[in-house]
Amino acid sequence: MKNQIDIYKTENDLYDLGYKNICGIDEAGRGPLAGPCVVCACIMPEFLRIDGINDSKQLTKKKREELYKIIVKNAIAYKVIFVSPKEIDQYNILEATRRGMKKAFEGLKIKPDYVLTDAVKLKIDTKNEAIIHGDALSASIAAASIIAKVTRDNYMDKMDIKYPNYGFAHNKGYGTKMHMDALKNLGPCPIHRKTFYPVSTYFNKNKQLSIFDNED
Fold first, then answer.
1. Closest to 192 (Cα-Cα) out of 27, 33, 23
2. Is the pLDDT at 1 greater than 90, yes or no?
3. If 145 and its partner were Cys, which of 26, 79, 133, 211 is the partner (CB 3.0–4.6 Å)?
4. Cα distance between residue 108 and residue 69, in whole Å
């Protein structure tokens, strides 16, 4: 029960100060070699307490999916943004994530009174706070992390069908042995991040890029 009480402390303190619509923002997929970074901004009801809510990385797939259904059903508002591999390559992962978080915030149908983000500081016109390991310390950020994680995982399952052999359904774009072996044999596919090592080594004039070279 201790973890459950702790994860709502930040929100409770803000409610006591008079804030009502508190938004948590988090992402899934900053580290993988392939696929988008998915960002979510989420406002949960003040008096709702969801048993077991936590950092999405600390939950089983089954538990994440159970909590996802509860969160999206009860959320006052939420917005999901896909930050594409192209954007990540263009801006770098930190700046691309920050841009995605701002877009998610701006896309909410209800403007929050206060914004909590996981580690990334935003320049927005609403009072906001970046919390290190926020997805484990704030219920609002945890809710956003769960939506982002489940959404991204489902997307990578679809990419596994479109681009088989990389194991995207299992590794979600992270650099597992199977993924690395596929890179060696096939080269990168269109959803790989060109600036991430070792994918970046396939993009030079002296080397054939991949079997997808002629794909739009």
1. 33
2. no
3. 26
4. 19
Distances 190 to 14, 161, 167, 181 between C-alpha atoms, Å: 43, 14, 15, 17
Is the model more confident about 160 or about 57? 160
35 DSSP assignment: S
Instruction: Tell me if the bond preceding 190 is cis, omega within 30° of 0.
Output: no
Q: Are 94 and 1 in contact (CB under 8 A)?
A: no
| Nearest-angstrom CA–CA distance, 106 and 115 | 12
- Alpha-carbon distance of 53 to 171, in angstroms, equals 24
Give SS3 for 164. Answer: coil
Task: Express each pLDDT in 28-39 by its tens digit.
Answer: 999 999 999 999
Residue 41: partners with Cβ closer than 8 Å, 6 or more residues away: 23, 24, 25, 78, 79, 101, 104, 105, 107, 108, 115, 144
- Token pair of 5, please? 């009480």
135 by DSSP, 3-state: which?
A: helix
Q: At what angle do helices 9-16 and 139-162 cross, to 10 degrees?
A: 130
State the residue for tokens 């991204």. Answer: 152
Locate 32 and state its tokens.
Answer: 């993988």
The yes-or-no verdict on residue 41 having pLDDT over 60 is: yes
Q: In percent, how much of the chain has pLDDT > 90?
A: 90
